Amino acid sequence: MGVLLEHLPELWQGLIVTLQLTAASFAGAAVLGVLVCALRVSPVRVLRALGTAYVETLQNLPLLVLLVLVFFGLPEIGIKADPLVTAIVVIAVYEAAYIGEALRSGVNSVSKGQGEAARAIGLTFGQSLRHVVLPQALRTVVQPIGNIFIATTMNTALAGAVSVVDLTASAQRVNLVEAQPIPIFVGAGIAYGLIAAAAGFVTGRLERRLVILR
């Protein structure tokens, strides 16, 4: 316990970076995930194939490999980016595949009659998706989206591999000095657990408020 209090400023700064990384990458993943979902349910075969290729590719790549490839590959083509920005973009692109699939399952749960009714009153595919289908689909996938948020939080721990000093990297640095891995990493684990518990609580409340009785 004493080692945690002694190094509280470093660990706290790492926690702040983890929260920033989680919030920014999840927001980016949510926006991109809607686009992926739109591709996956598009009536145009080429767009559906594009969405399928995106999901299949990202879901079959380890996030750590993607992070390292992008971090070390960009400078090779003359692009220099801040490690934190690189990690945010890569995690957002990766998690978008999962959010897109969660949203697609929600879209599939909406009655086809809803889409047909929207088109009958003159709405385009994009308008019916935005105004009719997606709002209903979102209400059915609150818990899966919450689970993806928790997974995103845990995945940010990999950002230390590309020089981002998040909570895990901070704990590792402190451990290199103090050589007390158990209290240091138990403390870091508790912090991750509290974030996950808070996310689970919020999504549970939202799910109960937005539940659709069929």
Automatic annotation (TrEMBL):
Pfam families: BPD_transp_1 (PF00528)
Compartments where found: Cell membrane
SUPFAM superfamilies, sorted: MetI-like (SSF161098)
One term of GO molecular function: transmembrane transporter activity
Principal subcellular localization: membrane
Gene Ontology CC terms, in alphabetical order: ATP-binding cassette (ABC) transporter complex
InterPro entries (alphabetical): AA_ABC_transptr_permease_3TM, ArtM/GltK/GlnP/TcyL/YhdX-like, MetI-like, MetI-like_sf
GO biological process: amino acid transport
Gene3D superfamilies per record: MetI-like
Membrane topology: Multi-pass membrane protein
TM annotation in the entry: 12-39, 60-78, 84-103, 145-164, 184-204
Positions of the ABC transmembrane type-1 domain: 15-203
Membership in a protein family: Belongs to the binding-protein-dependent transport system permease family. HisMQ subfamily.
Name of this protein: Glutamate transport system permease protein
Species for this entry: Nonomuraea polychroma
Phylogenetic classification of the source organism: Bacteria, Bacillati, Actinomycetota, Actinomycetes, Streptosporangiales
